[in-house]
TrEMBL record, chain A:
Major site of localization recorded for this protein: membrane
Gene3D superfamilies: MetI-like
UniProt-listed SUPFAM superfamilies: MetI-like
Localisation per UniProt entry: Cell membrane
Tagged with keyword Nucleotide-binding: no
Membrane topology term: Multi-pass membrane protein
Keyword set, alphabetical order: Cell membrane, Membrane, Transmembrane, Transmembrane helix, Transport
Record InterPro entries: BPD_transp_1_N (IPR045621), MetI-like (IPR000515), MetI-like_sf (IPR035906)
Organism for this UniProt entry: Bradyrhizobium valentinum
Domain named ABC transmembrane type-1: residues: 95-303
Protein's UniProt name: ABC transporter permease
Highest taxon, organism lineage: Bacteria
CDD domains: TM_PBP2
UniProtKB/TrEMBL annotation, chain B:
One Gene Ontology CC term in the entry: plasma membrane
Ranges of residues in domain ABC transmembrane type-1: 95-284
Organism of derivation: Bradyrhizobium valentinum
Membrane-topology annotation of the record: Multi-pass membrane protein
Keyword Membrane: yes
Family to which this protein belongs: Belongs to the binding-protein-dependent transport system permease family.
Tree of life domain: Bacteria
PANTHER family the UniProt entry points to: OLIGOPEPTIDE TRANSPORT SYSTEM PERMEASE PROTEIN APPC (PTHR43386), PEPTIDE ABC TRANSPORTER PERMEASE PROTEIN (PTHR43386:SF25)
Lineage, broadest ranks: Bacteria, Pseudomonadati, Pseudomonadota, Alphaproteobacteria, Hyphomicrobiales
Subcellular location: Cell membrane
Record-given protein name: ABC transporter permease
Main localization of the protein described in the UniProt heading: membrane
GO biological process per UniProt: transmembrane transport
Alphabetically ordered keywords of this record: Cell membrane, Membrane, Transmembrane, Transmembrane helix, Transport
TrEMBL record, chain C:
Domain of life: Bacteria
Protein name: ABC transporter substrate-binding protein
A Pfam family the protein falls into: SBP_bac_5
Signal peptide: 1-29
GO cellular component: ATP-binding cassette (ABC) transporter complex; outer membrane-bounded periplasmic space
Main location: periplasm
One annotated GO molecular function: peptide transmembrane transporter activity
One record GO biological process: peptide transport
Keywords, in A-Z order: Signal
Family indicated by similarity: Belongs to the bacterial solute-binding protein 5 family.
Domain Solute-binding protein family: 81-445
InterPro entries, alphabetized: Peptide/Ni-bd, SBP_5, SBP_5_dom
């Protein structure tokens, strides 16, 4: 097992370096002046040149990349151009809020997904299956940002039940797990949960159905095995794949939250990315993308290892 | 997506049978859900294609005096938007761009990804490693993040959004194509072809393409739904289509200011995205189960 | 029945008692004003805000003062410059590049340190002296461009400072409204504690720390700060202008870039006040009993004409015809829900810099068509013009609908308007590159709105021939000797009244020349809860939060 983990980690290192290069290049092919956030368009050319030198944007790209990577390895992603604050602190704080949202959404989405999937798999081709499958397919097909908008119209504007935007009455800095704060989480969490709910339902339904239709289950039943034991058997066989899918979904929720966070002004990494893009704040943009991608890589690694731990056959494959 | 590829992979051996596609066609035709979806999609495609001949209002011509009319207003069956443009016309014309930016990336990625995957899977060795490790780098980004990062870097625009979505889907299709190819390569009938003296190019073209394309195709149709949502999402963020072009995601964005005045008109573009997306998903499901002979 | 009645009475008594008992508590409870801003992020708090004038409004003028301030007390009068941390100033008679400023005595920073000549010199050097330890490149861009001629500062005595400009410039006192006075003592304390490899790194760390815990002299003090989400300010009891000590105890500022989110937050009671509510929600906002505030702003929504060779706008009859062809009232009521003021120039009557133009800008279709026919155009011979605009952008109001409205209106006067819709950043960048640059795509006009607070930004940079690209924003290469002469005259007239008269003359000349297609002034709409009392919206980008109170 340890050898397997070591192999996986070694394998990840070139990926991480390439990811850093992609982040850097992506941001530097950006057209437009990198100093647009601090330099008004009516500033003189000499002022612009002076500031480009002060920020180091006049150096050759490979030098800029080398410097950036060197500092990044030492835990310094530079400072945001627009705010002057260290990028790493900004990103980590935002990621914290995204984690809050993703965990809440995962709780909702995974619970419902597992429930619907198991029921649908057990009662394949009955009306229960049809309902669960329809809910699941709607979940994966709905443009979630639109769903969020519709929910704001209904629950915030029309009914005035839940707040439309933000992360609590005191901002995320004063977050607490009580109703006053949780009510800010409900709409964005539900909106985020629909896709994982749909995907988990579909996965678990397919897995359950497959396992139940296998010959040896019939054999077990014929031998007089209790339904509970059959169920345990299903869980055991479905777990590795289901776990992998859920891990991947969690990763998507962490890294792909920009649309929902924009709709709900949820102060997470997605909203940070959005403002970095529109403010053309290059250090912040590349730092945010890098941190999110690294999270995703790390999560995938964990899922791989966990899967191997549960199902030893994978290690050999 | 992992699920889809898994199921697609399992469907692969099926393609050995002759007359297989006829069977698949017959099975889909018997599936009511798939047929309804196909009908809805054909309707949307046809209306988008034939929009100029449908006697619709000019989708660009606005009027300040008839802004944000409700659904059911005479002459404006689906109301008007924030600039007083006919919603029905804009939704139908909007289908043109929305479908292009939603589907074209998948088609491009299908072509590029299949080629890469076939070559990687068939040739194997160093080339396989080179292709697949490069692909892994892009796989290290969540797809939404990658799409937005590329679009954000390239700037708003239709071409840029198609490019960014293509880059997002190529790795996924390449992976599926590579694993299907590798699986098929080692099967008996390829060995037989090789033994009978067929060159690698012939083998790849005749045997592998036929046996490999099916599963990749099913996988790709499943991606169209994701692509539609993402493409519209890019426009929704202001990273895709630019005004005044009618496009569903952008319309959703610009109509957001109207949700207090006329929420149902503001929700219409989202309904269109939803409809196309769910139809593609159901159709893809239908195809997959039709191709799965074990049932 | 009787039972019911007695129950009701009992309830009423209980309520009344609760009220009486509760009142003292209510009175002593802290009053809070929560505001939703349009900015995507909290403007910088370290003294020189970013995010344009909205930044100055919320994190500049609240926590800080400048040597000169704006009069924000009246909704009717034009907002003019008044003394701030300087009480009086004059230019040197012999050398018009030297100014002496007398400072206001007895003013203290929030950290208790005194405001004096050293502090002024320190604050000038933070953006102008590159080898000063506290020089901060990130604050230079927003500051230096707004006071283009200031060169250096020198202490004369504790309460007197001498400022030097690069060339004689009578606009200096107006420019100085943009230089906010941060506390050198507080910064130095952060600097001494800061860790860093070199002086530059320490300085950067000190500024970052200062931004989290700032100190100025303004009517509001920084209290709590959650980056990107929330800034809390509390009133400064010891503010030097007793009349402007805030009435509410705490002001909470929340960035809400999305108009709908802002409006929803106001309607659901999350905030008490939003800047720029979604225009389509205005009716609903009013119906629900919220107040809508708006007033003419020093802002112009124009088409800036290209005057390079071959431009159709070189014919003054065509420029005048376009100005007479627009029904601005129709635009206001039909499209903007009343939220604009028709523009008849950069400044409207009542403004000290308006002057007396002879060309009256109004809607007169007949006159416009006549001018166009004189110029050789008609229903069968249309004049094609191309205008660059963007779909969004700071201060652009609703660029697409408004331009489409102009397109329709100008068609009546034989114009065939082609709109070239490009990205806001590109449009803004091209504004500096000019009509001859390839990025202009051959456009004959550009549609970038501008703020008109200060004579340089309102007039000089567009009208003076030496301001042509790449120097400044004379996008269309206007080259009019009369404008040049009047600019020089205004800049070198140091008596404030005579300077204003010279500026008025310049403005009148620009209107008579139909230098722009003047369309609209923004009105800075804001919506607030009925509990917000005492607010006055001046004709300015800025507002005074001090007189605002919250009814229970």
């Amino acid at each position: 097992m340890l050898a397997y983990i070591a192999r996986r980690i070694v394998y990840v290192i070139p990926i991480v370096l390439s990811v850093a290069l992609v982040c850097f290049l992506l941001v530097h092919i950006t057209p437009g002046d990198p100093l647009v956030a601090v330099l008004p368009a009516d500033a003189s050319q000499e002022l612009a040149a002076q500031m480009r030198t002060a920020y180091g944007f006049d150096r050759p790209l490979p030098v800029q990349f080398g410097l950036w990577l060197w500092r990044a390895i030492h835990g310094d992603l530079g400072s945001s151009i627009a705010t002057g604050r260290p990028v790493l602190t900004e990103v980590l704080r935002a990621v914290g809020n995204t984690v809050t949202l993703a965990v809440a959404a995962a709780l909702i989405g995974f619970t419902l997904g597992l429930l619907f999937g198991l029921i649908a798999g057990y009662f394949r081709d009955t009306w229960i299956d049809k309902v669960a499958t329809s809910v699941a397919i709607a979940g994966v097909s709905v443009p979630h940002y639109w769903l969020g908008m519709v929910m704001v119209i209904i629950f915030s504007v029309q009914l005035n039940w839940l707040p439309a935007v933000g992360a609590g009455p005191g901002g995320s800095g004063a977050w607490g797990w009580d109703w006053e704060h949780m009510k800010y989480l409900i709409l964005p969490a539900i909106t985020t949960s629909v896709i994982p709910m749909g995907i988990v339902t579909r996965t678990v339904r397919a897995l359950t159905g497959d396992i139940l239709s296998q010959d040896f289950v019939e054999a077990l039943r014929a031998k007089g095995l209790r339904e509970l034991d059959v169920f345990k058997h299903v869980i055991k066989n479905a777990a590795p794949t289901a776990l992998a899918v859920m891990g991947l979904q969690l990763g998507y929720m962490l890294g792909g939250s920009i649309l929902i966070e924009t709709v709900f002004s949820w102060p997470g990494s997605g909203l940070l990315l959005n403002s970095a893009i529109f403010q053309r704040d290059l250090p912040l943009l590349q730092g945010t993308i890098l941190v999110l991608a690294l999270f995703f890589v790390a999560l995938n690694l964990l899922v791989d290892i966990a899967q191997a731990a549960i199902d030893p056959r994978i290690k050999r494959g | 997506m992992t699920v889809m590829s898994d199921t697609a992979l399992q469907a692969a051996p099926a393609t050995k049978a002759r007359g297989y596609w006829a069977t698949v066609g017959r099975r889909i035709a018997r599936d009511k859900v798939s047929m309804v979806c196909a009908f809805v999609l054909v309707l949307i495609f046809a209306s988008a294609l034939l929009a100029p001949w449908l006697g619709l209002a000019d989708p660009y011509q606005g009027s300040m005096i008839r802004r944000l009319r409700h659904i059911g207003t005479p002459n404006y069956p689906l109301g008007t938007d924030e600039l007083g443009r006919d919603m029905l016309a804009r939704l139908i014309y909007g289908g043109r761009l929305s479908l292009i930016i939603g589907i074209l990336p998948v088609i491009l990625a299908f072509v590029i990804g299949t080629s890469l995957g076939l070559v990687a899977g068939y040739v194997g060795g160093r080339l396989n490693t080179a292709i697949m490790r490069t692909i892994d780098v892009f796989y290290a980004f969540p797809s939404v993040l990658l799409a937005i990062a590329i679009s954000g870097a390239l700037g708003a625009g239709i071409v840029n959004s198609i490019v960014s979505l293509t880059i997002v889907f190529v790795p996924q299709i390449t992976r599926v194509a590579e694993s299907v190819t590798t699986g098929v390569r080692n099967m008996d009938f390829v060995e037989a072809a090789r033994a009978s003296g067929a060159g690698p190019f012939t083998i790849m073209r005749v045997h592998m393409l036929g046996n490999v394309l099916g599963p990749i195709f099913v996988y790709a149709t499943g991606l169209i739904s994701v692509s539609m949502i993402l493409a519209a999402g890019l426009s929704f963020l202001g990273l895709g289509t630019k005004p005044p072009e009618p496009e569903w995601g952008l319309m959703l964005n610009t109509l957001r200011t109207a949700i207090y005045v006329n929420p149902w008109v503001a929700a219409l573009p989202g309904v269109m995205i939803f409809a196309v997306s769910i139809c593609f998903n159901l159709l893809s499901d239908g195809m997959r189960s039709a191709m799965d002979i074990r049932n | 029945m009787r039972n019911d009645k007695s129950k009701k009475t009992a309830t009423a008594w209980l309520l009344a008692t609760a009220l009486v008992v509760g009142l003292p508590q209510l009175a002593s409870a802290e009053t809070v004003l929560r505001i939703g801003m349009t900015a995507a992020d909290i403007p910088r708090t370290l003294g020189q805000p970013d995010q344009g004038f909205e930044g100055n409004r919320f994190t500049g003028l609240t926590m800080y003062d400048a040597l000169t301030l704006w009069d924000l007390s009246s909704a009717e009068k034009a907002s003019v410059m008044i003394p701030g941390l300087a009480t009086e100033w004059k230019v040197d008679d012999a050398d018009k590049k030297k100014w002496t400023f007398k400072l206001r005595p007895g003013v203290k920073f929030h950290d208790g340190s005194p405001f004096n000549a050293d502090a002024v010199v320190w604050n000038v050097e933070k953006v102008l002296k590159q080898d000063a330890p506290h020089f901060d490149a990130s604050q230079v861009g927003v500051t230096a461009s707004r006071m283009p001629t200031l060169a250096s500062a020198r202490k004369i005595d504790d309460m007197t400072v001498e400022l030097t400009t690069k060339e004689p410039d009578s606009f200096l006192p107006i420019n100085l409204t943009n230089l906010f006075m941060a506390s050198p003592t507080k910064w130095q304390a952060f600097y001494d504690k800061a860790e860093g490899a070199d002086a530059k790194a320490k300085s950067q760390a000190a500024w970052a720390a200062f931004a989290r815990d700032a100190s100025g002299t303004g009517p509001w003090k920084m209290s709590k700060f959650t980056p990107r989400e929330r800034l809390e300010l509390v009133k400064n009891e010891g503010y030097w202008d007793k009349a402007r000590v805030p009435k509410v105890d705490r002001m909470v500022l929340l960035p809400m870039p999305e108009a709908n989110a802002r409006t929803a937050a106001l309607l659901s009671g999350q905030v008490d006040w939003v800047e720029a509510p979604a225009p389509d929600a205005v009716k609903e906002i009013k119906q629900r009993g919220f107040q809508l505030q708006a007033n003419e702003s020093p802002h112009v929504w124009p088409w800036q004409f290209s005057r390079i060779e071959g431009s159709p706008w070189n014919d003054i009859r065509v420029r005048k015809a376009a100005n007479l062809c627009i029904d601005r009232e129709g635009l206001k009521e039909g499209l903007l829900a009343g939220l604009m003021v028709p523009a008849t120039g950069t400044f409207e009557p009542g403004h000290p810099w308006r002057g007396k133009p002879t060309f009256q800008i109004k809607y007169d279709l007949k006159a416009a068509q006549k001018l166009m026919q004189e110029a050789g155009y008609g229903p069968s011979k249309k004049l094609t013009v191309k205008t660059q605009t963007s779909a969004s952008g700071s201060g652009q109001m609703q660029p697409l609908p408004m331009n489409e409205y102009l397109q329709q209106a100008l068609a009546e006067c034989y114009f065939d308007v082609q709109l070239d819709v490009i990205e806001w950043n590109t449009l803004f960048t091209n504004w500096r590159r000019g009509a001859k640059d390839p990025t202009a795509n051959g456009a004959n006009a550009t549609n970038v709105t501008y703020a008109a607070m200060d004579p340089f930004f309102a007039l000089v940079r567009f009208l003076q021939s030496s301001m042509a690209p790449p120097v400044s924003n004379n996008w269309g290469f206007i080259n009019n000797p009369k404008f040049d002469e009047l600019v020089t005259k205004a800049r070198q007239t140091f008596d404030p009244a005579a300077r204003d008269a010279a500026l008025a003359e310049l403005h009148a000349a620009s209107v008579d020349d139909a230098a722009f297609l003047y369309v609209a002034h923004d009105v800075s709409p804001r919506a607030m809860s009925p509990k917000v009392k005492g607010f006055v919206q001046p004709k300015s980008w800025f507002v005074d939060f001090s007189p605002v109170s919250m009814a229970p």
